[in-house]
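Are you able to produce any protein sequence you like plus the matching backbone structure tokens because I've never seen that pairing?
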Amino acid sequence: MSLSSAVLRALICALLALSALAAPATAEPTCPCGLWDDHDTPAVLDAAEPSAVELGLAWHADRDGYALGVRFYKGPGNTGPHTGSLWSADGRRLATGTFADESGTGWQTLLFPAPVAVPAGVDHLVSYLSPTGHFSVDPDYFTSPRRADPLTAPGAGAFRTGGGFPDQRSGASNYWVDVLWAAEPGPDLRPPALVGTTPVDGASSSPTSGRVTATFDEPVDPDTATLAVTGPDGPVAGAVTTSADRRATTFVPESPLPGGTRHRAEVVVHDGAGNRRAHTWSFTTAAPRPTGCPCSVWDESAAPAVPASADPAAVELGARVRFDGRAEVLGVRFYKGPGNTGPHTGSLWAGNGVLLATGAFADESASGWQTLRFTSPVIVQAATDYVVSYSAPNGHYAADLGYFRAGEATHGAAHLPGDGDGGPNGLYRYGGGFPTSSAQGANYWVDVLYRNGFNGDTTAPTLLERSPEGDAVDAPLTTTFSEPVDPASAQVRLTDPAGARLRGSVSLSADLRTVTWRPDGALRGATRYTAHVMAADVNGNPLAEPGSWSFTTAAPRCPCSLFSTATAPAPPTSGEDTAHELGVRFTPTAPGKVTGVRFHKGPGNTGTHTGSLWSADGRRLATGTFTGESASGWQSLTFATPVVVVPGEVYVASYTAPNGRWSLDERYFQRALVDTPPLRTPAPADWESDGVGVYLPGAGFPTRSYQGNNYWVDAVYTPSADTTPPVLTSRTPLAGAVEVDPLTTVVASFDEPLDATRSSVTVTGPDGAPVAGRFTARPDGLTLVWTPDAPMGAGHHTVSIRTADVGGNVLPSPVTWAFTVGGR
């Protein structure tokens, strides 16, 4: 930060005295100096450009000297905070600081923490950041270089939108930025400047851990640094430390600070020259969550990982909210970080965009949770989506990317649904109005203030009975409550082992005490599901404790698949709009046939879809085109000819999405593999190259995988009625035969038709090496024949046969025997 005007005057006087002592007989300029003096003013005080921009000027000096700081001319509307910098010509930042004690308009001066030596004739650049624009400018100023001995500005000023090294130019514009230069560095009369504090002055919702830090722009003396915290009961006991670079002083209390109370912090430090800096500020700790309502999803101690984004644009930020029972929405909350200046307004919207209530936030703290209470409460219905939002006219809002992709945020009867549960969450709209856009499941830290209970009834219903429970069960879910429940509030959420939700329908008994849920499709067999039941009584009181339990379904009834058709992927559609082949790797545990392929279709997944079954090495075993598709949901293709599959072998079921927009559940298979015989998904050695969910841009055999993603492709499998492998009935030569002709053929017959594609005959000679020969299957399908390519050498030979019947039953071990060619 810059010096106070008194310290600045003292430094300039000291430098002038040094200059006078060293002055030669000829006239010299009076320095510290710049290219303009305080009487020079811009022609255009306010450019009326509201965007953040870094503005600068290139310059050099005729002699060796020091850059002491930077100056700029401030017009109306050019509000701060402003930072100033010195740069080398190639864009290296050599010094920086924050302007302080600014006047309303006119020249502002920042002194760097330490003077920077600048050689004669070497170009440098000084700049300042105008975070709100409205900078001063003369568009046609630099028709020739600006000269003020010993300084020269050779040409037009520079700028960079947003901030950073200004390397762009527009005509001959002068943005009224100047350097403060001197021939000598002068004495160090500048105290350390405060860069920032944690918590900031006036903050609310500060952690009760009580860690307090003050950061400075130069090293301070750790032996003389003090930082004291005073609470409602007086001084707080704790320890003070200084960081390794000696720029930060931290106070850590011996025990947590009391919640919801105001504290005062005072820091005193000295730099190496003994210059003293003292600063006092206050903050309020996060209040504990109240035992009753009004309630909110997050308590005061919840805080974003990114409390202030760099985006300065005006924007409306919001979140979808859903309630377990009828409730009254009392207001809106949001988390405020640095730079998120107001005025702020908060709103409640119906899911279709109708504005239900709005108001202006008042008495805001500098940072932390801010609360708006509406003039009148708004009654909201159970299991219905609403949107709470607030306007950030100057941006710099809190934003944690990916938050809602990990699931919902919930407390009590209020839920901020996860991304894909009824739509996206984390909503915004630039400029203002009903927010409908979303980005990467970001959480903008908007919350609702609500309460349940009408007509004086505050007693919550309880869960008396639930079913099914235990293992090997297969029945609808039923729950019975202690009192009638609001039909609109009755919700059942069933999830598979990886957390995917299943669709179903809810019905209530005549007395409104029993809720029954039936899935939209058969549940997957031998699978452990988790049920979560939510309901509220007619006065809006939700269950005192959520009704959650798990059960395991009975053994599969086939035809069967990897997933239940009641499964509803979240989100149902990916953002990709290019053609891809999507698939799943699976292994049967028993002989059978794959009769077709299924995939889940979401919005935008249009076009003609083809489905295929592949061997592990990429041979296409069957394919076809999906017909009679519905607009969304599971689609099925039945192959013209079923494909026999062998237990233990890996296959890939896939489909082509010509226009992209396929269903996607990130990291699904990392959360849980499918292991419900007769089908399972293999455990990969590497999720990136050997995953379960696979894909390929374009079309063809999908071989790529990413982080265990599930693309919701499935195979339809029917087990074989025949589970007995083939049995050898005859063979020639016989086992142990001797004096066998060198050109003899090896013949093996079995008791049932064989699958020639899964059969092999190998003959090894006396040296253990395979003997070259041809393998064929006779038309009867029962017999395998091997013919040598040339006469076999004399000696001991061994036959090994592997085969499977047409039902996929594989010999558990090879059939082997031996014979001798040309003698005993």
Remarks:
- The first strand starts at residue 53 and ends at 61.
